[in-house]
Design a protein that fits this description.
It is built from four helices and no strands. It is mainly α.
Amino acid sequence: MADKSRKRHIAKAITWRFIGTLDTILLSWIISGNLYLGFKIGIFEVITKMVLYYIHERIWYRLNIHNSNRRHILKTFSWRLIGSLDTFILAWLILSNPVAGMKISIAEVVTKMILYYGHERIWYLFDFGLEKNSRRKK
């Protein structure tokens, strides 16, 4: 039998990427002053972040941390480290400016940690893609 949690992780990756991409486009536009470049950074991130997020979810699914607040805070920080590095590299390459890449990735540390924590808390309320016996304690 296929692991049902994979559907959950794919759904979480899609919903998070939608939120994250909108945030990246907005911040990139504000910092670069160029909406086209903001969209370009956001579009490239859709690809890189979807792959990285799915891998991140699979790793966290296998970890045995049941306390929801601790788990969500640790996941938030680990994902933000991965995500910020990815944003920095993409923005630097697309804008040809490491300082602008750093500004965008630093701005995202704040906005995306808040958004990600909320995303995790909302998904924790739903059993979609979980076995009945695997529901984590709230």
